[in-house]
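hiii so um. not sure if this is the right channel but i have a protein structure encoded as tokens and i wanna go backwards to a sequence. like what aa goes where. can anyone help
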């Protein structure tokens, strides 16, 4: 201690580097281990925690909670959960392909002689210690494994966000915490179809290498279509909850032009879903509009272009196609692009062809299988049940959305029980059946009336033809024969 104090106080600072160099060499000669240090704070920047340190901390949290005696608790998910890590000067072991390594948590002693704006005493680090003979395995593969695993844990446990795009300047996306409770368990649809979608999503999320091998950007397009209230939004939330992805809900009508659309795309992160709901409502992007444009030939096209430039452009079909699968779309990786529509036939075929929208999912009216899921979720009722056969028959005879069924199944007061809810549903289905019957009859009548009108019209026309001898009708139009 005396010698060390003398050394610290009186040994010239300039020579210490040389002494350190030789002592390190001497120690290394006898010391059989290799140490890799990961500091907590970035050397550059202002109190930034190093990403590697944070990722390792996540990776070690599992072993820390079982091996270390003293633990630190850090808040995660905005204080909703805690991450336990080993405290300073604790050690834990880990094993990789049969090789044992040691992780030590420590901190550099404070340098009391320097006055620094940085908190010197906060120089924490993790030291990875392993035997020299395992150098290749640990440096080439274990470190990467730890970082990958740590990242995967962080992604799994992170608080997910729901973003929407802002109109005009400033930040492109603003987000809130995504907390939608819909899952594939709560979703009412044919179990086989449901399983198929879940398998598809899970295979996609594990296919990074496969997509790289086939030379495709790691993304997949889904088109969800069906009448309102059949669960398109619920399905999107269930998908996000299954894969633990963020959602970017893109409001196309707020996007100024194709350039802004591209900027929005660049601003999204991986492990996310970009959702455009009711794409048919962006009429500009549908085949209908394209057709209408062609028909409107008599409009002065030059004026239209000038007007567009004055307005600052707009999102076009080709802009959206580029957004989905252009060069920029590969940025970030691991992304789902999801369109929803109530009217599939309104969409331009180019937009929904396979490769762009890889999977088309129809969400339709409630069938008996879907009803069983809802009955179980809402009322804890399972088959066999006295009311089920009647409900099955009525569901086959009517087109009712899962949203309508769900509304009837939900108890409205504490006095209501499963039976009263099911009875209410039966009544509602009977009314719906009756209404549908009346509507069909009215439509039939209207059709018949139209037919009669058509026939009268034909008679009138025939009358006109009879007066045709001079080839001129009463109104003066020349009509052709036949
Ligand atoms: N398939 C379903 N499974 C479970 N619940 C459903 C389903 N479909 C609808 N619902 C219920 O109905 C409500 C409305 O459904 P949702 O918003 O998902 O329908 P949507 O098809 O997106 O409708 P829209 O086209 O009008 O946006 C949901 O909150 C949910 O409670």
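sure thing!! here u go:
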């Amino acid at each position: 201690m005396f010698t060390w104090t003398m050394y610290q106080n009186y040994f010239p600072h300039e020579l210490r580097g040389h002494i350190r160099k030789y002592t390190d060499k001497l120690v290394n000669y006898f010391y059989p281990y290799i140490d890799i240090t990961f500091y907590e704070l970035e050397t550059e920047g202002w109190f930034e925690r190093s990403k590697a340190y944070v990722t390792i901390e996540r990776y070690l949290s599992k072993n820390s909670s079982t091996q270390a005696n003293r633990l630190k608790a850090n808040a995660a998910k905005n204080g909703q959960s805690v991450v336990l890590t080993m405290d300073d000067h604790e050690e834990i072991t880990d094993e990789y392909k049969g090789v044992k390594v040691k992780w030590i948590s420590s901190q550099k002693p404070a340098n009391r002689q320097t006055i620094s704006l940085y908190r010197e005493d906060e120089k924490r680090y993790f030291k990875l210690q392993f035997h020299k003979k395992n150098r290749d395995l640990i440096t080439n593969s274990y470190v990467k494994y730890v970082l990958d695993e740590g990242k995967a844990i962080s992604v799994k446990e992170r608080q997910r966000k729901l973003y929407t795009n802002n109109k005009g300047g400033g930040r492109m996306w603003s987000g809130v915490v995504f907390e939608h409770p819909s899952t594939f368990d709560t979703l009412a649809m044919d179990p086989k179809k449901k399983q198929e979608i879940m398998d598809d999503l899970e295979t996609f999320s594990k296919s990074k290498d496969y997509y790289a091998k086939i030379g495709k950007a790691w993304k997949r397009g889904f088109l969800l279509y069906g009448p309102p209230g059949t669960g398109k939004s619920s399905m999107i939330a269930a998908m996000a909850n299954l894969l633990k992805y963020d959602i970017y809900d893109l409001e196309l009508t707020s996007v100024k032009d194709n350039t802004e659309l591209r900027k929005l795309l660049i601003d999204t992160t991986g492990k996310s879903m970009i959702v455009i709901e009711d794409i048919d409502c962006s009429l500009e992007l549908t085949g209908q509009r394209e057709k209408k444009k062609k028909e409107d030939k008599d409009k002065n096209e030059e004026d239209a272009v000038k007007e567009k430039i004055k307005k600052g452009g707009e999102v076009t079909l080709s802009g959206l196609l580029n957004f989905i699968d252009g060069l920029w779309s590969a940025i970030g990786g691991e992304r789902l692009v999801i369109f929803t529509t109530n009217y599939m036939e309104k969409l331009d075929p180019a937009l929904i062809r396979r490769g762009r929208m890889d999977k088309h999912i129809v969400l339709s009216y409630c069938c008996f299988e879907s009803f069983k899921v809802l009955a179980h979720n809402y009322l804890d009722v399972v088959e066999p049940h006295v009311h089920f056969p009647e409900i099955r028959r009525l569901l086959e005879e009517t087109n009712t959305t899962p949203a309508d069924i769900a509304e009837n199944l939900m108890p409205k007061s504490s006095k209501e029980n499963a039976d009263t809810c099911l009875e209410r549903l039966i009544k509602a289905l009977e009314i719906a059946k009756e209404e549908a019957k009346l509507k069909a009859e009215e439509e039939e009548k209207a059709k018949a009336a139209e037919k009669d009108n058509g026939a009268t019209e034909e008679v009138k026309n025939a009358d006109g033809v009879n007066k045709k001898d001079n080839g001129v009708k009463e109104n003066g139009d020349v009509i052709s024969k036949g």
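oh and Confidence is low (pLDDT under 50) at residues 308-312, 465-482.
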